[in-house]
Structure formats: C-alpha cells, structure tokens
Amino acid sequence: MEIALRSERIYIANKPVDFRRGVDGLCALIVEEMQKDPGNGVYIFYNKKLNRVKVLGWHRNGFALLYKRLESGKFFVCCDNDNLQINSDQLKMLLVGINWKLLSHVECKIDTHF
Q1: Domain range holding 64?
Q2: Which residues make Cβ contacts (< 8 Å) with residue 64, sequence separation at least 6?
Q3: Beta 62-69 vs 84-86: how paired, if at all?
Q4: Which residues of the chain form beta strands (DSSP E)?
Q5: pLDDT on residue 103
Q6: What 3-state class would DSSP assign to 56?
Q7: Torsion sign (Cα): 87, 18, 20, 73
Q8: In degrees, to the nearest 5, what angle opens at C-alpha 47 toward C-alphas 64 and 37?
Q9: Is 6:45 a contact under the CB 8 Å cutoff?
Q10: Residues contacting 80, CB < 8 A, separation 6+
C-alpha cells in the first residue's frame, strides 16, 4: 500500500496527545491549539511514552491518518513550547526511528512508502 502525503508544511505538535482522538479530534486540536488549517499541511502527534505517532494529512478528497507503534525503542520527537516545522526528509527519518535532529543536514535515502 502506498499513500503519499505531500506538503511543504509538516508540523510536530508541541506536547503529547490523547491517542483516543481520531481524525475529528485531531483536526480540532490543530485548529484550537496549533492555530493551523488541518487541510493545509501534515501534522505529527505523539503519545507520552514516545512509542506511538499519528500522522494526519489531506489526501486527494479526505483526511488520511497514519498510526505507527514501535515494538521497542522510542521516536525522536522533541519540541520546545512551539509547534516545530520539519521537512519531508526529517519526517522519513522520524518514522523509521532515526534521530533526525542529529542528521538534519543529511538527505534521507530511505523509502518510507506505506
């Protein structure tokens, strides 16, 4: 299966979220707390343990929600008190569990189609 969520705007939430939230709950969070348009960007959310992420984005005619759970280890998600904007290479590294902050100057050659 391959779904491409393409956007120049990729944001990481500035705090963990309740993972019971679905598309509508995450869209409300984007509008209310991040003050962004849910249909205009890709948004990354994570849990307190940093072993799960949800990626929300607009795909053609509706929202797509990717949920990934690591069997071991943690995602390298760290933000200050602001929503962090990253690029597509950094998103690819984040999804495979690489500390993208250490390699932010490196182009990611990893195929992350899902």
Answers
A1: 10-86
A2: 3, 5, 56, 57, 58
A3: unpaired
A4: 10-12, 42-46, 52-59, 62-69, 84-86
A5: 66
A6: strand
A7: positive
A8: 40
A9: no
A10: 14
Predicted local confidence at residue 33, as pLDDT = 93
**Number of folded domains that form the chain:** 1
Distance CA 50, CA 52 (A): 6
**What tens-digit pLDDT sequence spans the chain (114 residues)?**
566 777 889 999 999 999 999 999 999 999 999 999 999 999 999 999 999 999 999 988 999 999 999 999 888 876 666 778 888 888 888 888 888 777 655 554 445 443
Q: What's phi and psi for 23, nearest 5 deg?
A: -60, -50
Residue 114 included in any domain: no
Q: Which tokens in the block code for residue 53?
A: 């992420």
5 within domain boundaries: no
Name which of 31, 30, 37, 39 is nearest 12 in CA terms: 30
